[in-house]
Specification:
With 705 residues, this protein is of the alpha+beta class. The protein is built from 24 helices and 25 strands. Strands 2, 3, 4, 5, 10, 18 and 19 form a seven-stranded mixed β-sheet that branches. Strands 12-11-23-22-21 form a five-stranded antiparallel β-sheet, with helices on both faces. The protein has a three-stranded antiparallel β-sheet with strand order 1-8-9.
Amino acid sequence: MTELRNVEADLSRFRTRVLVAGLVVFLCFSLVASRLVYLQVYRHEDLRAQAESNRTAIVPIVPNRGLILDRNGIVLASNYSAYTLEITPSKVENLDETIAALEQLVDIQPRDKRRFKRLREESKSFESIPLRTRLSDEEVARFAARRFAFPGVDIKARLFRSYPYGELGSHVVGYIGRINQTEKDAIEEREEEGNYRGTDYIGKLGVEQSFEQQLHGQTGVEQMETSAGGRAMRKLATSPATPGNTVMLSLDIGLQKLVEDMFGSRRGALVALDPRNGEVLAFVSKPTFDPNLFVDGIDQESWQALNESIDKPLLNRALRGTYPPGSTYKPFMAMAALQTGARSPGAIINDPGFYMFGGHRFGSPENERGGAMDMNRAIVESSNVYFYSLANELGVDAIHDFMAPLGFGQITGIDINGEVRGVLPSQAWKRGYFKRVEQQKWFAGETISLGIGQGYNSFTMLQLAQATATLANNGLRHKPRLVMGTQDTVTRALHPLPADPPVDLGYKPENVAIVRKALVGVTQGGTSTKVFAGAQYLSGGKTGTAQAVTIGQKDRYNKSRMEEHQRDHAVYMAFAPADNPKIALAVIVENAGWGAGVAAPIARRVFDYVLMGQYPSEEDMLAVQAGRAAAPIGKPRLAAEMNALLVDDTPGGSTSAAPQKAEPPSRGGKDKALRPAKADKAAKAAANPPPRKTPPAIPLATQPN
C-alpha cells in the first residue's frame, strides 16, 4: 500500500529553509553594506590619502645652504653642484662585484671605498650612499651608457659645501658633516624633521653649527604622479625650497690670514676685539684644519692620521684652550687694588728679588731690576714681588670677586658653541673641585702665585681679550660676538643682530687712567719697548710668560733642557690707540718662552694692519714666524693690496654678498688654497675635550715677564 506524503509538513520545511537562506543572504548583504559604509564613510579620508599616496610621490627639495661672509663681504663658505655616483645597497645583489665593475668605468680610489664602507655602516640599507663624488662629464657619460647593467646604482646631482680659503679661519667658520643619530634625535625633539627631509648634512663646528637654522633654509616639496611601477609621469605641484640666509661675520679675513701666517707652524691663539662694541676682528687658533676634508666624508686613513697628531689642530685654542695668564694678569690686580682701596698708586713696596711667605721663597726673574716699586713702575717693569704682596693683602676671595665681572673664569657668551669656563680660584671653588677633605682647604700660601697670574688661574684667550677690551673701554664690558647679522637670500633684506647692552663695572675714571698709563709705559720704556719702536701711534700692553708645567721652587727654568711641549708660553695683552682704543687683543704662543720676544711682535703687526693699513714685508714676516722679530723691518706692504691678492688668488673668493657658485675642490688635493699645510691634523675628538683640570701643585718658580 502506498504511503501518502504530508504536503503540509513539506511546505513547512521548505518555508523554513527559504527563511534561513534568506536570513543568511540578508546577513551577508548587511555585512557587505556595513563594510561598504565603513570604507566609504568612516575610512574615506584615510583610504583616499593612501590611494593618493599610491598615485603620487612627495619628493623633498633640499634648499641651498646660506653663505658665510666676512665683514667686507668676502665669501668664506659657499656651495657648488656636482654629480655623485651612488649605490642603494638593498637593490644590489653583490656589492663587491658591482664596485669592481664600476671601477672599469669610473675612477674609484681606495679612500672612496673606505668612506663608502663607513657611510654604509652608519646608514640604512635602502638609503642611497655616495661611492664617488665630483664626477667629471666624461665619467658621467661612460656610466650613463652602461646604466642598464647596474641596478641599484645611479648618478645624482648634489650640492656640496665649499670653503674656498681652506684652513683659513676654519675654527670660526666650522664645517658640515653627515647627520648622526644624536643630531637626528635633536631635530625630532625640535619638531624640525620635516625641514630636514632629504638633507644628509648639518653644521658640526663654529658658525656652521651655531647658526645652523639660519643657514639651512626651508625644505621644499615636489608632488609627482607615478605609474604602478613607480616611474614618475608628471609633476602635479611644487612648493619651492627657500635658500638659507647669508650670515655676515665681524671677522676681517685679511687680518685673520695675517695672524695665522705670522704664527707659522707654531701653536697658539689670538683674539682681537673692537672694545667699543665687542665685535671680533680676528679669532685665531693654530694649527688649523681644512674643513673641505669633511664635506663628503673623511676617509678612515685620513681620520687616523688626524687622531694621532700631537698638535690637535681641531682644538679651538681661542675658545677652549685654557692657560695661566702670567704677568698679563698684573694690570687687573692693580685695578683690584685701586677699586677696593687695598693699595694706593703711590704706595712703595721694596722688591729685593724675592718674596718670603710661610717659609717659602717666591722668586722673581733674574733680569728684574728690583728696588722701590710704586704701582706704575711695578706694571712697567713687571715686578713679581709687588704683586705677590698685593695678592696676599687682597686674599683669594676678594681677587675672585673682582675678576669674575671682568669675565675671567666665566662664560663670555660669544655666539659660537663650545666655550669653556676655565678656572678662577676661590675657597668655594676648591671645596667643590677636590674630593678629598684634606685637599679642600685653602692655604694662604696658595694665594701668593695668583698675583702674577700663576697658581690655579687658568683662562682662555677670549676671556683675557674681553678683560683687556673692558679695561680699554673704561670699565664698559661688551659681550664678544662674531656674527653681525644675516641677509635674506630672497628679499636681500639685511637683519642686524641686536647686541646686548654693555655692562658698566663702575670703575672710577682716575683708577682706569692710572692703569692705562702704566700699560702705555710698558710699550714706551718697559718690556715691549723694542717691539713698538717707531710706531706712529701709542698703545698699551703687558707681556707675560705662562708656565706649561710646574717647576719646583728650588729649580731653575732652563729652556734648552726641556722638551718643546714643556716650555713656557709667551703671552701678550694690548690695546690701541692708547687715547681712544679701537682694538684690544690677547695672544699666546705655546711653548715659545718670553712674551715680549714672540707674542708682542704679532700684536704690533696687528695694530699696524688695523690702524695704519700696513702689511709686513716678506723679510719681516719670516722674522716673526721664526720668533726673532722686534720692530718691523723692511718696507711694509699695503694691506689693501694684499687683501685684493687674497681674494683674486682664491677659488670662489668674492667681495660681493650675492650668492656665488664656488669652484669644487680639486680631487687630487693639489690646490694649495684647499689643502692642509700638514698631513698630521688632530682628531675631531680634540675639538671638544673636557676642560683641563689644573694640577694641584702651586708653581713657585721664578718667571720672566
